[in-house]
Amino acid sequence: MNTANELTIVIPAKNEARLIPSLMLSLATQDYSKMPSTRVLVADANSTDGTPEIALAFRDRLNVSVIGGGMPAVGRNRGAALADTPYVLFLDADIEMAHPSVIRRAVELAQQKQLHCVTTNIVCREGTWSDKTLYACNDCFQYLSRLHKPFATGMFMLFDRKKFQELGGFNERAQFAEDYLLSKQVARSKFGIVRGGVYTTNRRFQKMGHFRVARLFLETAMNSWNEKFFLRDHKYWAELGPGEERPARAH
């Protein structure tokens, strides 16, 4: 039996004390046999609500460590730099696994088909019909992207670590959509989507409004070739609610 670790999980976080317990619990209940020994790196961006301590409270069930983070791209890159496993799974701190087998099946799919990137669908359990419809549109675009330039959401991105390094990791100058900037560089034949999904909240729509999020999504698709568009500040992190501070920049 091969007991060598094959996966490292990286989670950028800032003031996620309310939601990160659900993520940690969903990781602890995955049927992935190597989960107990898999490194879970929480890249914390100077949280003031006890996020690191809450994450570390799961050390009896997960191999959790806390490292210094920053903006999401910075936190993800810092975690990946510490990984020595064949695969790195990037997760958002405000999600949870929707199915207990999603990580195992994602790793198996990547191994069997020698994929460079695997993602999954997004499910919004709370909120309005509009919230769920927009996430459904996101999933549709994700599936269609396999015909052109792959699109993987940063909520769940399983990457072949060597390919991740070859592509240069996440663009730390990007003001948003750093996940798309990276995943669109993956060859279509090396991109996969596994069913099972992750649960997320509707807080982005509450902060920015449905129309503004949809418009930004369409502009992103139309500017996929224009890197300067992603380097501009679209106020994606500006309108945050109580206890949800803008992630700190790296110094």
Compose a concise summary of this entry:
This protein is α/β, with parallel strands linked by helices and 251 residues long.
CATH architecture: Alpha-Beta Complex
Helix content: 25-40%
- The average pLDDT is 85
- State the fourth-level CATH superfamily: Spore Coat Polysaccharide Biosynthesis Protein SpsA, Chain A
Helix and strand pattern: EHEHEHEEHEHEHHEHHH
CATH level-1 class: Alpha Beta
Number of strands: 8
C-alpha-based Rg, rounded: 17 Å
| SS-based class | alpha/beta
Largest sheet composition: 8 strands, mixed
> Which fold name is given in CATH as the topology?
Spore Coat Polysaccharide Biosynthesis Protein SpsA, Chain A
The total of helices stands at: 10
- Identify the strand order in the major beta sheet: 3-2-1-4-7-6-8-5
Question: Poorly predicted ranges (pLDDT <50, ≥5 residues)?
Answer: 239-251
How many domains? The number is: 1
